[in-house]
Amino acid sequence: MPSPYRALFAAPGSKAFSAAGFLGRMPLSMMGIGVVTMISQLTGRYGLAGALSATIALAAAVAGPQVSRLVDQYGQRRVLRPATLVSLTAAAGLLFTAHFDGPDWLLFVCCAGIGCVPSVGAMIRARWAALYRGTPSLHTAYSFESVVDEICFIFGPIISIGLSTAWFPEAGPLLAACFLAVGVFWLTAQRATEPAPHPRERKDGGGSALRSPGLQVLVATFAATGAIFGAVDVVTVAFAEEEGHKAAASVVLAVYALGSCAAGAVFGLLRFAGAAERRWLLGVCAMAVSMIPLLLVGNLPFLAVALFVAGLSIAPTMITTMSLIEEHVPRAQLTEGMTWVSTGLAVGVALGSSVAGWVIDAAGARAGYGVPAVSGAVAVAVGFLGYRRLKRPARDRGGSVGQHSEREERHVA
pTM of the entire structure? Predict the structure, then answer.
């Protein structure tokens, strides 16, 4: 690992909370695709599978920011443990219902309960921010976390799809639930690095972080971006099945994440002098353009190459997004702000996976790749329309004076 990354772990406790965060985030890449694989194997209904995966994402979109707002006020330990228990109970209900051929409505109820899962990635980034706020190391830390995210997406689908196809259909979601339990309870046992809560200390009287115009743009754009991810996951599984190699979908999706992982690792070593919002918009455009070759896929090797190239723009865009959140959200609402972006992604994943499932059922997997292409175009449109809002950072975000002055001088220039 390059020295800037090694230097991150000089802080006491950083290795432990990072390891716990890795385990706690594995379900992010395993649960949705695991449910798609499980339901498609048990019932053969991709429409239902996509709708259930969408329900998990939508429920997380509703509950996630509320959980994170409570975390900002009361601390990670007091909030994450009960929220995780609710999610684990619902996951157990989903597995039993699917295994014993229960009614569809009960499957949806259980998936809604799984949505109470906390945004572990936001919790880890908040710990890094508490350690390195106002220093160049924070950019490296955010880059490292994006790499960890992509490692999860490299191995998560492989493990989840592989277990569900080679062992028994419920195996993938079951292991995802186990990772969640171990990761969250290990993380919350580490009190020394837990960010200090901010109970009712906000100048705005405790209003939502989403009132920030800049954060609204980020969330809206990443709702469209999330539709790309959700659609690609579902369509790739169906495409691999049409090609007669359903298990290979996990490898293809891993290649997609590998491209993002490699780009994120390099991006973390770079230092940029220009405006972050310009890099962000460029990244959104790159993600949209990279969806066009998917419309031409004819076999799995070509699909893997196209997805690797598409993945190169993901991590740099996400890293820049986290930096922009720091500029547009008050410090006391940082966890909530990060979770709202995850919520935008979750809403998009829900819509993308659901629409893709319907398109697959109606017209086949190849037609399904039109969904991420359209979603990319929407993301670009929203990004351009809201770009001016991103050039006005929040004055009460709690950042350092030097950070404010740097941006003001840059815009004056």
Answer: 0.70
